[in-house]
Design brief:
5 helices; globular; Rossmann fold; binds guanosine-5'-diphosphate; binds magnesium ion; alpha/beta
Amino acid sequence: MAIFNAKERIIECKIVYYGPGRGGKTTNLEYIFKAFNKHTSAEMVSINTKGDRTLFFDFLPMGIGKIRGCDVKVQLYTVPGQARYASTRKMVLKGVDGVVFVADSLEVRRKANLLSLKDLADNLKEESKSIFQIPLVLQFNKRDLADGGIPITPAEVMEKEMNRQLKAPYHLASAIKGQGVGPTLKQILLLTLRDLQRELKWTK
Ligand SMILES: Nc1nc2c(ncn2[C@@H]2O[C@H](COP(=O)(O)OP(=O)(O)O)[C@@H](O)[C@H]2O)c(=O)[nH]1
Ligand SMILES: [Mg+2]
């Protein structure tokens, strides 16, 4: 649940980029940090876990308006995807308000996507949240690989395998080229803030 700082009139919420290892989560965040630097805090914080990193920085979605007279500050996080960092992933998901699931379009990663999605659902459940209810956007990343003749999974197949029940909005992307990164971010911000607004309606 978002943190409501009444004194400073700020609402802080947390969006986590989740997905299989090497799917492109860090690449998404690095692109956002550079391309939308007017909205971001001065520093990207990086916690090193061998071979992979947990990254986060603040994002100020200007122009999105205020909620209850408060400015909204968003923290964007990535998690390390490999199996051995299960506990880090659980920790990063604590208090999450919205999730971007970055799926790898590489055909050989089909199963890894599904396992990671299942892992996300399980970890959310431990947080008493449902993957069906939390603001969620899927991203099918690395679409550019098709140009190099590398086998990628057709979008319809990815949609069917991952999204048949979830029915989450999804975006095709090439994070390395910055394609689809902005629309993915914009949509998760919108869904998360809308959800927050709804939640705050019922509290004092
Ligand atoms: N071709 C291609 N490579 C990508 C894309 N996104 C990420 N990569 C590469 O995939 C590797 C893993 O990306 P990274 O962002 O570290 O994945 P993470 O483990 O999910 O954080 C890196 O070598 C990236 O350069 C993409 O859209 N297209
Ligand atoms: Mg990473």
